[in-house]
Design a protein that fits this description.
The protein is α/β, with parallel strands linked by helices. 37% of the residues lie in helices and 14% in strands. The chain has helices at residues 39-49, 54-60, 62-73, 91-100, 139-151, 172-185, 203-211, 224-230, 240-253, 279-283, 318-324, 333-347, 401-420, 443-470, 472-480; strands at 15-20, 23-28, 33-37, 84-85, 105-108, 159-164, 190-196, 215-219, 262-268, 292-297, 358-359, 372-374, 380-381, 393-394, 398-399, 436-437, 440-441. Helix 5 (139-151) runs parallel beside helix 6 (172-185), helix 7 (203-211) packs across helix 9 and helix 14 (443-470) crosses helix 15.
């Protein structure tokens, strides 16, 4: 006869079931662990999830229910959903993190840009984004931002300062001053980085970046025809040649053992364009095949019309092409970047020991800890991608702790009801970027993004299960991989 402990287990378990061609699985939300189960076990979980009590199921499936009982005793399959979202730290602990553990400060050194890329976030297509301007950060604001960056990174592994724009190299002299000022006022080494279109890079600039060990991320959207289609000067001329010349100068100046400090950021309007990126290495034989390259899809305004590539290339899907390369030594790094990381993140997801009263708020960071973005006018923002969120301080007045507390609380409170019933609650990638607009939390915007995440997550689980069955060596590779 079933134990008394089941008398109160009449509610459905807090789980998700997956019945795929490769088997039956249950994802326990509280522990975030994925278990393969038999068809009969899947039926029991399905009926329990639909409202049949374990007491009733015991009559027909005594052995399976007995196994479930053992797993419940080990902290699995809690029937109680979480009560709220939280960062699992008290507010005083969060303040300590903000004041001492900042990972990176990103400085918008200028809002000027010498290009007018068709999909640019600052091209006027967003109501809550700035547009291209003619400002350069004042010396006073720059110095204040750097001093606080140093102070608030004292307990971090390193002090990290990045330069952003606009095109940051339009303010090259100000960057030189910033590096000198930062090094003069810090007793610890500082890691510098820059995101640039590379059109302005000459010998002097490349030498400076190398001398100060800059990590350089160059915006290069594939081969000439593809890049020039989207990344243009104000007169409509493509920027490929000047970008390539800048990149080549950079690689010539940086010694080969430091080429790992140079990377490419390749933005494409749709996955149909991904196969076109390979042509870049055909056109530019000097370009290292192993150069660090990251690919992302355009986050374009509604009016942006996505053009299709002139040639579709290979017939097989990009996902199938990635799968076909799993067992070969020489892989397509662009496909690895596009597909591998998503499954790697799930494979190395955090797991827990039992019931949790609160879950972490989606993919949110603690503002001003992982990163702080300083606008050209000195306003503190959560990051360079989050434009619609309220400011969280100013370089001249410091961090606004009250605003940070309000943003954290508002996001958690207004997201919780939807999150509580979501299959991706423990593995969600959404953050403030997907919820705020013009300084306000926008529930409709958030829910549109929630639906995208749910669809993507369910497909990801099915794909992950299939990969684990067909390519067990990939699972072993992910066991030892490092997430950057």
């Amino acid at each position: 006869m079933i134990n008394d402990m089941f008398d109160f287990i009449s509610a459905p378990p807090y789980i998700a079931l997956y019945n795929t061609p490769d088997g039956h699985y249950v994802l326990d939300h509280h522990t975030n662990r994925l278990f393969e189960i038999s068809e009969s076990e899947s039926e029991v979980f399905s009926r329990w999830l639909s409202g049949t009590s374990l007491t009733d199921l015991q009559l027909q499936f005594s052995e399976i229910v007995s196994e479930i009982k053992t797993m419940i005793e080990r902290g699995l399959f809690s029937c109680n959903p979480p009560q709220y979202l939280s960062f699992h730290a008290s507010w005083p602990e969060i303040i300590t993190l903000i004041n001492s553990k900042r990972a990176k400060t990103l400085v918008e050194i200028t809002d000027k840009c010498n290009l007018r890329c068709k999909y640019c976030a600052f091209g006027g297509g967003y109501s809550d984004h700035r547009t291209h301007g003619n400002l350069e950060m004042s010396t006073v604001i720059l110095e204040k931002a750097i001093l606080e960056a140093i102070q608030c990174s004292q307990e971090s592994e390193r002090i990290s300062i990045g330069f952003y724009g606009g095109e940051p190299l339009l303010a090259f002299e100000k960057i030189k001053y910033a590096v000198f000022f930062a090094k003069t006022h810090s007793l610890r080494p500082i890691s510098f980085s820059i995101t640039t279109n590379a059109t302005l890079i000459n010998f002097e600039i490349a030498q400076f970046l190398n001398d100060h060990s800059f990590n350089v991320l160059v915006s290069l959207d594939g081969p000439k025809d593809m890049h020039d289609r989207f990344r243009q000067y104000p007169n409509g001329t493509g920027s490929y040649e000047t970008t390539i010349n800048g990149l080549k100068t950079l690689l010539d100046i940086y010694p080969s053992e430091r080429h790992n400090l140079i990377g490419l950021n390749m933005v494409i309007p749709s996955l149909s364009w991904l196969s076109q990126l390979h042509q870049l290495w055909d056109q530019e034989s000097w370009l290292p095949r192993n150069i660090r390259a990251q690919t992302s899809l355009v986050d374009a305004p509604e009016h942006f019309i996505f053009e299709e590539p002139p040639h579709k290339g290979i017939d097989m899907s990009l996902y199938d092409e990635w799968l076909s390369e799993i067992r070969i030594e020489k892989k397509n790094t662009l496909l690895e970047n596009m597909f591998d990381k998503s499954y790697l993140f799930f494979h190395q997801r955090p797991t827990f020991s039992g019931h949790r009263n609160s879950f972490y708020p989606n993919g949110c960071c603690v503002p001003a800890v992982q990163k702080l973005y300083v606008s050209v006018e000195g306003h503190y923002k959560i990051c360079e991608r989050v434009h619609g969120c309220p400011n969280i301080g100013h370089a001249l007045t410091g961090i606004d702790l009250l605003n940070i507390q309000n943003v954290i609380a508002e996001y958690a409170e207004k997201s919780f009801e939807d999150c509580q019933s979501c299959v991706a609650i423990s593995n969600c990638t959404l953050c403030y970027l997907h919820a705020y607009e013009n300084g306000l939390f926008n529930q409709d915007k958030k829910r549109i993004n929630c639906e995208k995440v749910r669809r993507s997550f369910n497909q990801k689980i099915a794909d992950y299960i299939s990969i684990s069955k067909t390519y067990p060596e990939k699972i072993q590779e992910w066991d030892n991989a490092t997430i950057y």
